[in-house]
């Protein structure tokens, strides 16, 4: 694509020069002007060849050439408008990224790159032209994404509503093995008595989430109908449960602790022991603590590593505690004030080197010093636990569905606005160029 005035002038001069030397030849010509850019006949021809090649590969019938040509022209106009937007944003697709995209195209066609190049040649498409088509497509797509994202607003209530609908669909026919603890409230209980029972229920939930045995706590504290069975209700579908239980179970999976929640008779805690027919998502969280030493102009790599090695030996020998060293030495102020503790986190939140270390390090072992982009660390994994993330996964899926739905709607609206505000002309004299 180029400035259309310069293009027309260049073509005219080329026509004069060629006419003085040899017989007239058909030259590339401008078929459409789009703002300050032009679409050439060669652009249309190249796109037509690509469309025909793709259709043949998928055994897809095509409309008559007159209809297909207009469809291709419409697509090129919209692509040109988006490329103009991309130029304003400074979007550029480098060769490395382009090569990766083309390699992916070949992979999707189950071809090697040489095989793809041969296919293009058989269809009269030069590899250089194909590369530029792909580059333009990626560039236009990025411009569209940037503009449309700004127009999308997803409310938390929308996500919650759709997540509940998805959960209900997924839970048809699902069976749950559940256990229950009930802390009773006597009729006429005072506000102080209600608060006391509420606090007791919250404390039990804390113990359960730390790994306490549910059955033991049910035997000791529950006043529910299954207390003598360790609180276990066995296998049930949601429609077979007491309504107050069913209302609390949304998309939680195996091992989930639910509650405390209140009814007319007191406070309740549920545990999902197992499920049948429900796809659950579980992640491993790591409870770690670390000490960070950063290098600087006055502290070299070797010096930082040596400082941590000495600190590690002091901790191992019992001269100092991990918490004391973290508070006095660590350059991570957030964790240093807490004795180096990072709390329960999924390893994916950490940089790759730190992630690999906490995933592989045995519990209770203090690592040798290792380096990340932040500096030199020693780390200790204090515990690991599997945590149900089914509920979060359903909400993430609901958000993606809403985003894709709104993106498609807003993209169409944006493209229509873009075209409505553009200068588009098909010059009659363009057909006479050359």
From TrEMBL:
<keyword id="KW-0143">Chaperone</keyword>
<keyword id="KW-0574">Periplasm</keyword>
<dbReference type="GO" id="GO:0051082">
    <property type="term" value="F:unfolded protein binding"/>
</dbReference>
<dbReference type="Pfam" id="PF00639">
    <property type="entry name" value="Rotamase"/>
</dbReference>
<dbReference type="InterPro" id="IPR046357">
    <property type="entry name" value="PPIase_dom_sf"/>
</dbReference>
<feature type="domain" description="PpiC">
    <location>
        <begin position="283"/>
        <end position="383"/>
    </location>
</feature>
<dbReference type="InterPro" id="IPR050280">
    <property type="entry name" value="OMP_Chaperone_SurA"/>
</dbReference>
<feature type="domain" description="PpiC">
    <location>
        <begin position="173"/>
        <end position="274"/>
    </location>
</feature>
<comment type="function">
    <text>Chaperone involved in the correct folding and assembly of outer membrane proteins. Recognizes specific patterns of aromatic residues and the orientation of their side chains, which are found more frequently in integral outer membrane proteins. May act in both early periplasmic and late outer membrane-associated steps of protein maturation.</text>
</comment>
<keyword id="KW-0697">Rotamase</keyword>
<keyword id="KW-0677">Repeat</keyword>
<dbReference type="InterPro" id="IPR023058">
    <property type="entry name" value="PPIase_PpiC_CS"/>
</dbReference>
<dbReference type="Pfam" id="PF09312">
    <property type="entry name" value="SurA_N"/>
</dbReference>
<dbReference type="InterPro" id="IPR023034">
    <property type="entry name" value="PPIase_SurA"/>
</dbReference>
<protein>
    <recommendedName>
        <fullName>Chaperone SurA</fullName>
        <ecNumber>5.2.1.8</ecNumber>
    </recommendedName>
</protein>
<dbReference type="GO" id="GO:0030288">
    <property type="term" value="C:outer membrane-bounded periplasmic space"/>
</dbReference>
<dbReference type="GO" id="GO:0050821">
    <property type="term" value="P:protein stabilization"/>
</dbReference>
<dbReference type="GO" id="GO:0042277">
    <property type="term" value="F:peptide binding"/>
</dbReference>
<dbReference type="GO" id="GO:0003755">
    <property type="term" value="F:peptidyl-prolyl cis-trans isomerase activity"/>
</dbReference>
<feature type="signal peptide">
    <location>
        <begin position="1"/>
        <end position="22"/>
    </location>
</feature>
<keyword id="KW-0732">Signal</keyword>
<dbReference type="InterPro" id="IPR027304">
    <property type="entry name" value="Trigger_fact/SurA_dom_sf"/>
</dbReference>
<dbReference type="InterPro" id="IPR015391">
    <property type="entry name" value="SurA_N"/>
</dbReference>
<dbReference type="InterPro" id="IPR000297">
    <property type="entry name" value="PPIase_PpiC"/>
</dbReference>
<dbReference type="GO" id="GO:0006457">
    <property type="term" value="P:protein folding"/>
</dbReference>
<dbReference type="GO" id="GO:0043165">
    <property type="term" value="P:Gram-negative-bacterium-type cell outer membrane assembly"/>
</dbReference>
<keyword id="KW-0413">Isomerase</keyword>
């Amino acid at each position: 694509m180029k400035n259309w005035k310069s293009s027309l002038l260049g073509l005219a001069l080329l026509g004069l020069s060629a006419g003085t030397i040899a017989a007239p030849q058909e030259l590339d010509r401008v078929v459409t002007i789009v703002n300050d850019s032009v679409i050439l006949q060669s652009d249309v021809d190249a796109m037509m060849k690509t469309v025909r090649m793709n259709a043949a590969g998928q055994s897809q019938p095509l409309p008559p050439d007159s209809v297909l040509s207009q469809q291709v022209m419409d697509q090129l106009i919209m692509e040109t408008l988006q490329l103009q937007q991309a130029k304003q944003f400074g979007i550029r697709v480098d060769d490395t990224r382009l090569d990766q995209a083309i390699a992916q195209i070949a992979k999707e066609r189950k071809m090697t790159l040489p095989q793809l190049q041969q296919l293009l040649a058989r269809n009269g498409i030069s590899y250089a032209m194909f590369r530029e088509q792909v580059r333009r497509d990626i560039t236009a797509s990025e411009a569209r994404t940037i503009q449309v994202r700004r127009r999308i607003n997803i409310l938390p209530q929308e996500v919650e509503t759709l997540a509940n609908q998805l959960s209900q669909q997924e839970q048809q026919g699902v069976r749950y093995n559940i256990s229950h603890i009930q802390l009773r409230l006597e009729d006429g209980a005072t506000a102080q008595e209600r608060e006391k029972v509420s606090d007791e229920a919250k404390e039990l939930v804390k113990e359960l989430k730390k790994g306490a045995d549910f059955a033991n706590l049910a035997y000791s504290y529950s006043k529910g109908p299954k207390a003598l069975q360790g609180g276990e209700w066995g296998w049930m579908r949601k429609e077979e449960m007491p309504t107050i239980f069913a209302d609390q179970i949304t998309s939680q999976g195996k091992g989930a602790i639910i509650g405390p929640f209140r009814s007319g008779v007191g406070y309740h805690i549920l545990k999902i022991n197992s499920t049948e027919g429900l796809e659950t998502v579980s992640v491993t969280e790591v409870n770690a603590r670390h000490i960070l030493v950063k290098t600087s102009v006055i502290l070299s790599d070797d010096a930082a590593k040596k400082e941590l090695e000495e600190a590690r030996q002091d901790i191992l020998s019992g001269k100092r505690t991990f918490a004391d060293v973290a508070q006095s030495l660590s350059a991570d102020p957030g964790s240093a004030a807490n004795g180096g503790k990072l709390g329960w986190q999924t390893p994916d939140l950490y940089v790759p080197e730190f992630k690999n270390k906490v995933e592989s390090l045995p519990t209770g072992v203090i690592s040798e010093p290792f380096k990340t982009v932040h500096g030199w660390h020693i780390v200790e994994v204090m515990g690991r636990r599997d945590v149900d993330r089914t509920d979060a996964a359903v909400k993430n899926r609901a958000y993606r569905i809403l985003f894709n739905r709104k993106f498609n709607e807003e993209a169409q609206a944006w493209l229509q606005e873009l075209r409505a505000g553009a200068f588009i002309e098909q010059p009659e004299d363009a057909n006479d160029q050359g």
